[in-house]
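Lay summary. Proteins are chains of building blocks that fold into shapes, and those shapes determine what they do. In this project we predict the shape from the chain. Here is one chain we studied, written as its sequence of building blocks.
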Amino acid sequence: MIRFVSHEETTPMTTREDASALVQRMQECFNSRQFDQAADLHTPGFFSHPLGTTGFEAGKDAWRTLVARFPGMRVIAQDILVDGDKAAVRSTVEGIAAPDGDAQPMLFEIFRIDDGRFAEMWGASTGFPSSASPEDLTAG
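And here is the predicted shape, written in a compact code that computers can read:
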């Protein structure tokens, strides 16, 4: 007999509490500039789709680039939605002046969580000054 296994059966569920704590810990590391401690929150094979890289070293470099340009930058999660092994996060960004009349900058990220650590990430941003989005600053 053939048995079909769904994605939900092979992927452990991540509780909202666990995912929220992981996201908040990562943001604490960013906001306090403890980038090396954030590495422990990521699997060795962590893959960043925006950066196209494996491992968290490129993520630390991207964070350093952002805070060099915006020393007062802080990220605060507003919404954390969990489905299976994925967490979607909407975060406000403080410490960056938005262009005249524009909304406060925001980050939108989706993380795949494996055994309590970030394994994969997708992301986008909005409301950043021209040529100052995380995607623009870390490109090239």
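What the prediction tells us: DSSP finds five helices and six strands in the chain.
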